[in-house]
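Hi W.,

Here's what went into the run:
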Amino acid sequence: MSDNTSLLDIRKMRILQAIVDDYIMTAAPVGSRTVSKRSDMGLSPATIRNEMSDLTELGFLEQPHTSAGRIPSEKAYRLYVNHIMDQAKLTDDEADYIKRHLDTRVHEVGEVIRQTAKVISDMTNYTSMVLVPQLSSMKVKRISLIPVSEGSAMAVVVTNTGVTKNSMISIPESLSPDDIEKISKLITEKLDGHRLTDAIESVLPAIRAEIGEQADAVCEMLEDIERSMSETDVEVVGASNILDYPEYSDAQKARSFLTEVETGNYLQQVLKDSSDVEMSVRIGTDNDNPDLKDCSVITVTYKAGGKNIGSMGVVGPTRMDYGKVMAVLKYLSNSLSDILSKLLK
Amino acid sequence: MSDNTSLLDIRKMRILQAIVDDYIMTAAPVGSRTVSKRSDMGLSPATIRNEMSDLTELGFLEQPHTSAGRIPSEKAYRLYVNHIMDQAKLTDDEADYIKRHLDTRVHEVGEVIRQTAKVISDMTNYTSMVLVPQLSSMKVKRISLIPVSEGSAMAVVVTNTGVTKNSMISIPESLSPDDIEKISKLITEKLDGHRLTDAIESVLPAIRAEIGEQADAVCEMLEDIERSMSETDVEVVGASNILDYPEYSDAQKARSFLTEVETGNYLQQVLKDSSDVEMSVRIGTDNDNPDLKDCSVITVTYKAGGKNIGSMGVVGPTRMDYGKVMAVLKYLSNSLSDILSKLLK
DNA sequence: TGTTAGCACTCAAGGGTGGCGAGTGCTAAC
DNA sequence: GTTAGCACTCGCCACCCTTGAGTGCTAACA
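Here's what came out:
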């Protein structure tokens, strides 16, 4: 991958940068004259043409048809992101915008997540997505069971970091509300400090010892809780932004993008898969999802208390303003981590 | 409104019906020949033309340009929905589809709501929305406060119908977890059988009498709970379906529709406003929202235990298959009411 | 040897033209 | 009251031509 660098001399790199930069702005094939006109280039169109011809041969550029300009290939975007691109910094205005819109007084995790997704989407004008903090890696502080009706209860799990999640579970009819309260206390006591995923193996024996008769029922409940807690939620904002980009002016293309985003399965998987790499960039067919073959997905992680607890990202056309998006995501990763670290203290 | 009926003789009505039916199917202006060819009409194009000319004068039809056919006006859709349209019944296949896809074994309200929204959208191919059951009209059975971290707790409200809702609230630092548990028991006891909205006026004095010192803090908490509980959630599915209709092939139009649906404020308001009329139909500019001026919104209510507890509906182009949508919604209103009545018993 | 000017060539996009067909309104006859 | 006939309108489409942006190649130049 990084061998690519040695394949290209500095001039080719600069020309490729010019082409990618221009194409990201305009979505129109870039011609030699356009590149040559860039003040800092100092080469005639003819020379540029020769270089562009080489770049095409090397697989970095493509030609929609003979007499059109060139457009960058996926390979070009990868090189661009890894070696060429200017690392953008946010302007003061942009940093300001984030500060004003991430309200640190909000005291609910879900609300902060939604705000963050909104800010990402507003600043980049692409589709943003934020995974809500994952419980699986955290330690349980408390599990409350609240009787709701015959045969059902709400389970609320609170972790040591203060992240909460709740879900309805079914309970055996044989358990009275009092029993439930007792069990609720008991499992909180036993699970305190353990991961939920370890619950069944490590803690159940102890529970079984104390409540012989109902043990099976409790075991089932715990499994139920564990199952529902491992379900992930993801907040998606700005899906319709895609319609601002001419490559999606075709209703059919837009439709398949939006359907994919609406169901969200693939993107959720990407966020989960990337939740341990600080920043990941998937360009075009890196996404093994045909509906997103002309899209790029960039993700970053966020932390609380120094530990990764979730990830967030952006989906947009392959012709994406990588510099800007990466800068925004990096900045917001820090902001969100700060806020959550305080919030979940 | 129903005066319109007397303005039109039966033949005009039948012609108008033919035109609306055809336009709903094809989205193309309907000409006199097309109407005449309908087997049951038995009139020549020329006669139809005369009638169409009258209908245009009366404001039921519009002409995009001289030599095009006619398209129905909003006024025509209103007449069509109220007096002309054949009341469609679902086919056996469709009823079957619903039975198979509304899994009655699911025991969580939220999940049932999501399924319902999905089914509506799949069957109609428009955008569906379902308001989750509203607590405001129900009586409280239990309020649990679960300490999460210093200064914050999760409040879980359970109503007598078994609907639950939870939210984070902030609590005074001075309250210990034990205090919270005590208060949780106390307010459950006092509020049992009351509406949450009455809580503060009717119940607080009693609470105040029992816990003098912390009463203000508790009062604030209750207000906080009440506020967050009155927030409504709405499940929206199938927004991208709009791209299947040629009137939204223009990216700009599609964009404004999708943005409006994505933020959801207006539609949420409509659902809330219509939560006491069995079925409501808003056609075009009935929606005082410029982004939806070419859309129609149809809503129905659903019940549990004989009482309206929420509403759901469909948004789509004004050229909407009203008969089908109304049939689907009516059927699903019953199904959902049945399921919820059992679920929330 | 690298750079550049010149030139012939390609091809998409845009504008103009004309025919086609769906539709209308009017009139006159049944 | 209904209908056939007819002249007229106008959007759509296919066709053609022009334009212009862009290319590749070649030959000359530093």
